[in-house]
């Protein structure tokens, strides 16, 4: 799991950052050639969360074709709410390139500005678009 998480994390953040995960799934961020952990920014913290979730889905997807039937798992969709809002354009592009490689189906709830960038980077990989139109405080229409 740690290797899968680091592989995904390094597609988003290059520059000597790596993750360590302990037996209780606590994650620490480290910088090469620096003693001790580092305080992560908001975008880095979200990247860690994204890498952790994507790493688990990646491992589950790889186990779909396992010869050992005790390890076989079903495909799981990845559903996220505004996953790109804390990132710059370069990292949004990296995440959009990573998502289709990790999960068979990705469902994203996203605001229009991030949605335009995601649509630009994901392009033909997007199967459907829907828009939520707020009617009032209690009703929203799916378009």
The coarse silhouette is globular
- For the termini, the CA-CA separation is 39 Å
Q: What proportion strand?
A: 15-25%
**SS content category:** alpha+beta
- The total count of strands amounts to 6
Query: What is the element string, with H for helices and E for strands?
Result: HEEHEHEHEE
What would the average pLDDT be, to the nearest integer?
82
Low confidence ranges: none
Gyration radius, rounded: 17 Å
Helix proportion: 25-40%
Strands in their spatial order, largest beta sheet: 1-2
- Helix segment tally: 4
* Assembly classification: single chain
Main sheet: strands, sense, barrel: 2 strands, antiparallel
What does this structure look like?
The chain has 143 residues and is of the alpha+beta class. It has helices spanning 2-12, 42-62, 89-102, 112-122, and strands at 17-21, 27-31, 78-81, 106-109, 132-134, 140-142. Strands 1-2 form a two-stranded antiparallel ribbon. It has a two-stranded parallel ribbon with strand order 3-4. A hairpin with a 5-residue loop joins strand 5 (132-134) and strand 6. The model has no long low-confidence stretch (mean pLDDT 82).
């Amino acid at each position: 799991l740690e290797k899968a998480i680091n592989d995904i994390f390094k597609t988003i953040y290059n520059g000597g950052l790596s993750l360590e995960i302990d037996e209780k799934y606590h994650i620490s961020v480290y910088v090469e050639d620096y003693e001790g952990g580092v305080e992560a920014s908001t975008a880095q913290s979200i990247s860690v969360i994204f890498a952790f979730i994507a790493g688990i889905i990646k491992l589950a997807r790889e186990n779909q074709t396992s010869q050992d039937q005790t390890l076989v798992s079903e495909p799981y969709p990845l559903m996220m709410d505004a996953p790109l809002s804390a990132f710059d354009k370069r990292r949004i592009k990296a995440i959009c390139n990573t998502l289709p490689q990790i999960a068979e189906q990705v469902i994203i709830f996203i605001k229009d500005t991030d949605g335009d960038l995601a649509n630009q980077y994901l392009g033909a990989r997007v199967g459907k678009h829907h828009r939520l139109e707020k009617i009032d405080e209690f009703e929203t229409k799916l378009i």
